[in-house]
């Protein structure tokens, strides 16, 4: 018994150590970014790094003075929410159709498109949108970012739909429900947690995507992530302002995750089947 207890204790210690190391590796860059945003510009790149300093808001003041930050934030919000909504609108039925029919090649095709480098789509997008006069429009940015959000929604929701027992669908069909009604009235409530996760991931990936926003936007529709590039120059980089911009850019996904965390639970399908 003592040997078993000692073994369990060592396993718990090792698990705790692994979690601490993983937390440090993940959070250290984030903490460094946030601290750097409050440092004077000359201390951001100081070596060795200064751990004790007098916090200042100069970087945030410079950020708001040199760029129309609120306008860029609104542009990012419009593009991200639009592309996320578009991904959910088409991704939810697509994932359900793939799960219902057991035909996986459409989902694999979208995954292949997501795995391809963004430059593969950039030139066709640019030529097509230029021909129809849509360069610099919100529509062009939302449609191009749907290439990112749609595969995420499909592949996150596929396991959720696959986890619903077929007996639930068969019982609904016996009661006269159509496939569309089964999706919206039965399947969708059971995968609400999967929808929340897919929405968060789609939002984060679209919010942080740089390439399409850089090329397909203009001064009126430039997003935050593309505007942050302005602080990187050939001769010098405004690291303080860049860290302040990066800190503010990271806030919306964190706020979104906090707002929808109550949906991020498992067991919805199991509970519904038991009921």
Detailed description of the structure:
The chain has helices at residues 2-37, 41-44, 58-66, 69-101, 105-115, 119-131, 138-162, 166-174, 179-190, 192-208, 211-216, 224-227, 239-259, 268-274. With 275 residues, it is mainly alpha-helical. The chain has one domain (68-269): MetI-like (MetI-like fold), CATH 1.10.3720. The model is unreliable at 266-275 (pLDDT under 50).
Tell me, briefly, the overall form: flat
Query: What is the overall number of helices?
Result: 14
In total, how many beta strands? Answer: 0
Instruction: List the uncertain runs.
Output: 266-275
Strand content is under 5%
- Helix % is over 70%
Compute the number of structural domains: 1
Biggest sheet, open or closed, and with what strands and sense? Answer: none
- Given the helix and strand composition, which structural class is it? mainly alpha
Can you name the CATH architecture? Orthogonal Bundle
Order of helix and strand elements from N to C terminus: HHHHHHHHHHHHHH
Strand and helix map with partners:
Blueprint: H1 2-37, H2 41-44, H3 58-66, H4 69-101, H5 105-115, H6 119-131, H7 138-162, H8 166-174, H9 179-190, H10 192-208, H11 211-216, H12 224-227, H13 239-259, H14 268-274
Helix pairs in contact: 1-13, 3-13, 4-7, 4-10, 5-7, 7-10, 8-9, 10-13
Can you tag this structure with a few keywords?
disordered C terminus, MetI-like fold, single chain, 75% helix, 275 residues, mainly alpha
Brief write-up:
With 275 residues, this protein is mainly alpha-helical. The protein has 14 helices and no strands.
